[in-house]
Amino acid sequence: RFAMRSFRRLSRISGPVRVAVRGLATVPRHVAVIMDGNRRYGQRSVGDKLKGHAEGGRRLHDCVRWCLDTGVQHLSAFAFSTENWKRTPMEINYLMRLFTTKLEEIKEIALKEGVAVRLCASDKSRLPAHVQRCFEDLEATTATPNPPLTLNLCVSYGGQGEILQAARRLVTEAREGRWNERDVDQDLTEAEFESRLSYPVSVDLVIRTSGELRLSNFLLWQTAYAELIFLNKLWPEISREDWDLCLEDYASRKRRFGK
User: Catalytic: 36?
Assistant: First the structure.
């Protein structure tokens, strides 16, 4: 009911919205965006669903700037899921080419603004070698201590796969003698397990576009206590006004964490 309430309220955005974001008492530290609706946008706007992905990439550039302007410290973007490998070879090849182009553009923005960029992949091996090299170069080039923003690009990623990957790391450590049965019973905490995840930073706010009301296997561990906002707009249509209103909605909520 709460998610639907936000969905209905935010889906009625039309025209400029006045939001004093800089005056908010609470800004989410980590925002995760499910960038849904690129193909529908491309089909509707230019008659080519694949071209919607390029426009979606431009909106991600905008989103990075909005984070810097509003004080968000971590931005996780769901760019390509492990389930997306089921799409047609033509679309997958297009997306892999687009990644190499967009990563260069992101690098330019990141170096200018001091943003650190990371790849979060639960199945990195499926990415073509040249795409993996692009990500490795981007991570190395933008690595910086205490950046104002860390952009976490989730590509070939699934939340269940990430959790399974963390469990496998613990099994490997146990085989190497770093854990024994007593250690696991007494010392294996949620924090210890979380540290084995690809990106162990709890999410404060999830924003999903296109009107869909689900997480779609995205950052399942990290979003355990996240606030959820669903927008009835396609990802390329999201505006700065929408972003500001999402942050205002988040700031109005009382997060009790079970208390």
Answer: yes
